Every structure is written in C-alpha cells, then in structure tokens.
C-alpha cells in the first residue's frame, strides 16, 4: 500500500474548514492507503500557547481524529513531539533549503502580519519542519486544504534537491487537494479563510459547537443584498455557504440553486445550518465517549508513538548516513 501522511496543529478546536478541507477526506481515503496522522504540536509552538490549554487541545485533536472515523488501531495517529526524528530531520533539511525559497511563502507573510509581535524563526522555518514530517515517513500522498499547496511544493523541491545529490533517499510526495471544500471561508468575512485561531466566534463553526449555535451562526452569516441563491465570484458569502452545503449533502451547485429557487436566504441558511449540525452530531457523540474514557486513547497514543518512531528512525538513519554523519557504534 502507498503511504498517506497528514496532520493538524493543536491550536484550538477544529473548524468546519479543517473538517471539510482535510479531515473528511482523510476518512474517505483511509482504506486505500497506509495512513499516518500527526497531532502537529511542534508546529503549534510557532504561535504562543498557554501550556495547560495547549495540552488539552492536543488531546482533543487526537480524539477528534478518532471521532471523525479514523481507527487508531489501523492508522498510526501519534504526537509529532513524541518522535524526535521530526526535529532532527528538519535541521538537516534546513541546510538544503534556501532563504529565498522561504521568503516566498505566503503563509509566513500572512502569519507574520497576524502575529507582528512574535515573528519568530520557527514561523519562518515552518515549511522545513513540514517537509520533514512528510519525508520522514516516505509519504506518497498528503491531503491538505489549498492553503498548504505551496508548502507541499517546497517539500517536493527540497526532496528532489536532496535526492539529486545523494540518490533516491526520499519518496516525492503528491498533494491531494479536494475539489470541493478546499477553502472554506469565514462566515463573517467571506474573503478570509475560516481559521481555528479567529477570535470572532461567529466567523467559525467549531466541530464541537452545539446544534443551536451552529444554526445561529449560519443565520448570522454575512451574505449580500441580493436574494438569489447562486454561485459566483460576486457572491462570496452565498458561494461559501453553497460550498459547505454541497460538501455535506453531496449536491452540486446546480442542484442547490434549483432547490432554493424562489426561496430567500433565510430558508437557505437554515438548511445549511441543519445539514451541518446533522453531519457533526455523530462525531460529537463519539468524541464525548472517547474523552470520558481515558485508558483507550492513552493506550492508542502509546502504541502509535512507538510505531511512528520506528518508521521515522529508519529514514533518519539513512539520511544521516547519506550526508556523512558518523554512524553510532
Ligand atoms: N478554511 C479552510 N478550508 C479548508 N481547509 C482548511 N484547512 C485549514 N483551514 C481551512 C486545512 O486544515 C488542515 C489543518 O491545518 P493546520 O492545523 O495545519 O493549520 P492551518 O492550515 O493554519 O489552519 P487554521 O485553521 O487556519 O489554523 P490556525 O488558525 O492555527 O492557523 C490543513 O490541511 C489545512 O489546509
């Protein structure tokens, strides 16, 4: 089987964007691949975290992966920080990455603008750590939202550069970007992507929001002064809601336009809210069960950390040898 790798940062409760852009597709691709999913806690440190909240978010993220349908007995779901190879490979790869390349990363520019008081070196070298995550497991496929496309490209460039010098050390990974849901936008500012760290509660749907909040947030979603449910660049708010509705119900834009022909935005928003709440209900129930029962997750974390460590060490030793670091006796 080919290898699939992906992960998310533990920077807050996941949003519907994280779910439709990434997590839902992970579940769909699950059978076809040998899958590894990381709780990317080292990446999360690029933004200042409150330690106790951070630990809770990491655990909650792990439980959400499982609640969404990823079986930790079949998939390697582990904590990035528990496998030292990520940081070690990241250092070596940073010596094969040019400043000019990193300077072109749009996510760095966005995040630097957002966190102007803490533009740290980790934020800058974030794509190198991400390359290490992926290359460490010889991954073939990396399902991500469209915002991560550039990071996948730099990962491929670094791997190809390394392979050109040392032979076929790394598998060159492909990005998997879903056709629908790759970029879910904020409900309050539909020109901006929906983001975990958005402070405006009405802008994001969190996977753990209750049914009433979900419906209320959709009711308050910013749209336009028109009243026709139609997909188009001139209608970013409605188009975003259509995108969400389409992902959740499997209906095409055309079918949605027909369904709401002659009806107002109120009916449409309510339908989207209800469809999303229905989609998330089973996940939320499973999540509560998992969080209440401590030992199951603990044992899965332990077993999978060890598994990830085993794969990672294999690649890391090979890389160390290739670059000429002295082997351990
Ligand atoms: N709005 C989105 N639409 C579709 N996909 C999205 N992703 C993120 N936002 C959207 C995808 O979710 C995965 C996890 O992302 P991450 O945790 O690595 O961080 P991120 O991309 O920076 O996501 P956030 O939610 O915006 O987090 P913060 O606020 O902490 O920066 C990725 O596959 C991403 O593409």
TrEMBL record:
L-tryptophan binds at residue 133. A motif ('HIGH' region) lies at residues 10-18. The keyword Endoplasmic reticulum does not apply. Its EC number is 6.1.1.2. InterPro entries: aa-tRNA-synth_Ic, Rossmann-like_a/b/a_fold, Trp-tRNA-ligase, Trp-tRNA-ligase_bac-type, Trp-tRNA_synthetase. It catalyses: tRNA(Trp) + L-tryptophan + ATP = L-tryptophyl-tRNA(Trp) + AMP + diphosphate + H(+). It holds the Pfam family tRNA-synt_1b. Keywords: Aminoacyl-tRNA synthetase, ATP-binding, Cytoplasm, Ligase, Nucleotide-binding, Protein biosynthesis. A motif ('KMSKS' region) lies at residues 193-197. It is found in: Cytoplasm. ATP binds at residues 9-11, 17-18, 145-147, 184, 193-197. Belongs to the class-I aminoacyl-tRNA synthetase family. HAMAP family: Trp_tRNA_synth_B. This is Tryptophan--tRNA ligase. It comes from Roseburia zhanii.
